[in-house]
Amino acid sequence: MDAPAAIALVRKTSLSSLVEAEVMRLILAGELDSGQQIKEVAIAARLGVGRSSVREALRALEAVGLVRIEKNRGAFVRVVSETEAREMYVVREQLEGLAGALLAARITDDEVRELREYVDELDYYLDPAEFQRYFPLNLKFHRRIFEMAGNGRLLDMYGRLTNELHTVRRNGLLRGGGLAVSNIEHRNIVDALAARDADGASAAMRAHVSAGGQRRRAQAPGDSGSEVA
Amino acid sequence: MDAPAAIALVRKTSLSSLVEAEVMRLILAGELDSGQQIKEVAIAARLGVGRSSVREALRALEAVGLVRIEKNRGAFVRVVSETEAREMYVVREQLEGLAGALLAARITDDEVRELREYVDELDYYLDPAEFQRYFPLNLKFHRRIFEMAGNGRLLDMYGRLTNELHTVRRNGLLRGGGLAVSNIEHRNIVDALAARDADGASAAMRAHVSAGGQRRRAQAPGDSGSEVA
DNA sequence: CTGCTGTCGATTGTCGACAAAGTCAATCCG
DNA sequence: CGGATTGACTTTGTCGACAATCGACAGCAG
Fold it and tell me: Domains in chain B and their CATH numbers?
């Protein structure tokens, strides 16, 4: 890293922010399993910082919903229950629908092109063996739509939901195995956006999320999950 | 407080949680103005706790969106800009619409009755002089709808938005002066809910929020605000 | 063998100390 | 006289110490 960048970084970011980012990375990367305890001293030693910074970071992550803190027991990687996952999908469906509608009204030709590229690239990774390529690109596709939609608040909320859902979402896509179907839905979304059809884009987004939720649910463990033949 | 309750309280809540709740109260109650700096030692002394607890609380409140933290400068009560407020209203409109639709599908007769009582009571407080009665009751009406909707996640998100919007919302209702109109909209909502009309309830909710946003905007300071005659 | 209880190591909760950065005003120089 | 400089004072950033609490395990009673 060059000096100016380093200086800017040090001036703006506190240690706890860095710890927060790092712990988040560990969780999202799966290095910290769902439900696993996060020991303050371990993180502190690993990153070479004091416990205070770690504690502050964990507090923030709790508010974001990535960890759960029990008094005198510690911090644990949050595990989302089946019912919570369903609730979140309902909300997500609504948010993605809104993003689609907003974006259809303002998308540029360049942006349409960018989204199409993602979808085309995703087509190369439909094989389950390529999942570690498909998954992040899929995330990026959705995230870009929210970024392009131009509503910071909406993007923020989506980010939170995404963080909390990441485990469940990965498993759903992977085991549900509907990668090809999923990408067809992506194409429908882009088509509606390209046509500047707000209602169509909104509907396509909602349908996609809803279908994803059902794909996931078909694989979900118990909890009144409908047994699909 | 009786002993069992006290024990349960001590066992579950940490000092920083209490500090967090208290600072939140101070902000929502307006005792800490928008933009005002929150000094750690002042809060610590006032509540008789150490700085660590205060810092943790502030971190959490930052993640919730109630305060903004600048490195080496301190924590400030968050001030929402005009454009942010608009973005949030767009999102809120969508969330309230979802809550209405969900609730219409599951509302009980008792709940319909409860909501009607709120609306009836609100009618008594239409005079601007009674605003300090109208405002909290109005909040409760909306909050109860989300609670009844039965989606914890949705309720959670709504709570966050509400916290951040509280200032702007209070001013909007107060200065916009549309209390009577607002309550007519409330009645439309309850009617649609009572009829178990999901689409109607959703539309009524969205219309209400949208109208509220416009009432607010008509009063908003500058920032390309349309001058209404 | 089962269940209870006391004890111990591990982990978190809270605090204040010290260092670093920012703020502000009096002062100095052009 | 105006703007830069310096220096005291305030406020935050980070750390480790100490206390409180938890969970596990051993030992004992029945």
Answer: 3-77 (1.10.10.10), 82-219 (1.20.120.530)
